[in-house]
Amino acid sequence: MLQTPGNLCLIFAEKMMEGNSYSEASLREAIIQKFGKQQHFYACSAEDMDVDTLIEFLKKNFGTVAEMNRRLGTGFRDFRSAAFLPDFSKAPALRAAWRSFLSDRFVQVLAEMKKAVADVDSRSDIHFCQQILIAGLLTGSGSTMDQRKTMDVLDVLAIEGGYSYGFAENDGRWESDEMEAVLTRGVHFFSLVADYAAAVVRGKPGKTVADQEHYCMRYDGKDRIPSLPADFPTSLWASVFHGVSASSIFNWSGGKWQWSDMEGARKFARSMKYRGAALLNPYCYPEKTLSGLRGFMEELEPLRNVVLPMPRLKRPEAAILFSITSQRMLGDRQSLPNMENWYNALLREQLPAEFFFEEELSAENLKPYKILFIPDLKHSLPGTINVLEEFVQRGGSIVCSEDALSMDPYGLPLENRSFFQQK
Fold first, then answer.
1. Rounded to whole angstroms, how far apart are CA atoms 268 and 416?
2. How many other C-beta atoms lie within 10 A of the C-beta of residue 151?
3. pLDDT for 104-130, tens place per residue?
């Protein structure tokens, strides 16, 4: 059976309604005359819709132009104007809605692809994986995919990164390069990434986190210097206790050998790019350094059944509230202003805390915690303030930024004075 894009039908309906008045029944009949009674429709978030379902879909998801403008704070004259907006910076709330829409659609596509693979390969030991764009994790563009939802379909959430030792200077030369950005972030950024990923898979049986490109680096200023044997065990144990269940050491940095002797390997590595993390570079990782990998495995084996099952750590009494909804109101290159600094402060003071998503907020889910840190939750979901009020009333404490809970998901002001006046 042929299927017609739902947005094509929407445009057709809008054109028909210009200067005319249609009831639901008459619009249904007009669509049948245009596309045929047996025609089914699909849209990006719904498929195989007949005419009646399409009408309900349009009513639920688009409503009226006036309602769209009210919720998004825009002034579009029709749906078509909103759909073809060339610059989302003029309507950040529409961009947030679009990101949410893309996330849900992406999950549907993943499910379809997974089923297609399973239809031709019935092996039980096939695992589906997705890697987070680490450099954009805390940016507006990084909020487009809701990893919590993708992991309802997939099996392994992949990250990349690792730890650096010595004193590393970063002059910002590679901030525009996504691969370099992973290496030039602060020393605790990989821990943040791993803890975020662990929060994504928490409570999802059989789901796990894997570091697909583990970097173990040592610097003296801007110069890459040889790693020490203790660097690998230190890095890998840290990964274990931040929720990583598999680590693949980054081992190559180019399509061919790019040095002919040890001096060439040193110069190649000292560019302070990702090449300095290549395990096959003999300057970066002398033979004695590689013994650290064997040492880690020897330490791990007798403890494997103790330290690797999840959950690995005692549940902390503090949580960092992370809001994907609020993050979606950022521009593509804008970053959450406080998240990394607050996380680093807690880690350096050795105050155990885990990430918790606003999208999973409920009075029941907050029972394990005594204190919540809310560094970047300006745009909050309906009901969030009520849940947090109840948390405070039963004795919980909240530390938040000054603009916290000040707007709804699309930027309309919220009445939050009663919440902040609590003692």
1. 56
2. 23
3. 878 988 999 999 999 999 888 889 999
